[in-house]
Amino acid sequence: MRTFLKAERLNIGLTERCNAKCSHCQCGDARSNDMSKQIMEKIFDEVKIVGTLYLMGGELMLKPEVIDTLVKVLIAKDVQVDNFYLHTNGTLYNEKYFENLVQLKKLCKEQEGGNINISFDKFHRDEGNRILGEEQYQQNIARIAAHPLFLDFELMADVFLMGEGRAKNLDGGDIIVFEPTDELKEISYMPLNISERFKVAYVSQINISTLGDIVNENNYDEQKKNSLGNVMNSTINDALLRSRHTKQFQDRDWTKWNERINEKNTKLHMMQVYASAKRLKINPERILDVFT
Fold it and tell me: What are the C-alpha distances in Å from 56 to residues 88, 116, 162, 225, 262?
């Protein structure tokens, strides 16, 4: 009997297309790949309950039809989704994109709140001004932010980056660039954990690339090289079980695991605070005060 998955968070790369060339991009150069319907069907043959569905790009406004396909697959496969989130670079406005996201919203259990984050760090602002010109870029940002699905502006890359993709070429300056070591990935990318019960595996996080690879990477080149398996020829459950990052727990162990995850998240937050403190020229001895 197949093991079905319940994912607290499912990250899926719907497209690798992008109209921007941000110097910090951890994905690397854009490509003309979109997630196929067949890959989506394979994913949701197995993943049946999703807490947070995170739609990754690329820039999804360039390919809104892939969102429409996703909605149809979720309906056909009878998948339960609590909520979804995604980012946009703020340089485009596509009515079909918003229409398709509204349809996705209707499928979600959580109907309140926004879902779209605008990437508004210094790198995206530089690209937005280059692509549209400052005035038109600001107007476009305001137009997106006025939409009911808008959630917030994302500024983290102003201070804190993983050294993947183009970001590894940055010399830092007032930006903190961390090498993507296994230890840091286990902090930044929540470890994959499985607890089986009644043929349902509870998984904290699953990352699936546009081409269907089960991964723990942002960079497109690294995704294929370090793939745990591809959904077209392997079940997600089997691929996760092959990963050295996967931890298997019985139900009684989840409380201890959550405590360890909170500890790891605290380390990540401290890295972010350290990066912010350096940027703002705050004395390092005061970092803990800033964090508190």
Answer: 9, 11, 17, 19, 25
Distance between CA atoms of residues 292 and 117, nearest Å: 26
Look up tokens 């392997």; give the residue: 234
Which candidate, 43, 59, 42, places its Cα nearest to that of 11?
43
Q: Is 0.70 surpassed by the pTM of this model?
A: yes
pLDDT single digits (tens) 121-168: 999 999 999 999 999 999 999 999 999 999 999 987 877 777 788 888
Residues 6 or more apart whose CB falls under 8 angstroms from that of 228 comprise 213, 214, 215, 216, 239, 240, 242, 243
Written as six digits, the tokens of 181 are: 């070591």
Task: Give the Cβ contact number of residue 156 at 10 Å.
Answer: 12
Within a 10 A sphere around the Cβ of 100, how many other Cβ atoms? 20
Delimit the domains of the chain by residue range. Answer: 4-169+191-250
Q: Which CATH class is domain 4-169+191-250?
A: alpha beta
Type of residue found at 284: P
pLDDT digits (tens, 9 = 90+) for 95-131: 999 999 999 999 999 999 899 999 999 999 999 999 9
Write the pLDDT tens digit of every residue in 9-60.
999 999 999 999 998 898 989 999 999 999 999 999 999 999 999 999 999 9
Biggest CA pair distance of the chain: 58
What's the Cα-to-Cα distance from 259 to each of 61, 172, 266, rounded to whole Å? 38, 32, 11
d(CA 89, CA 207): 21
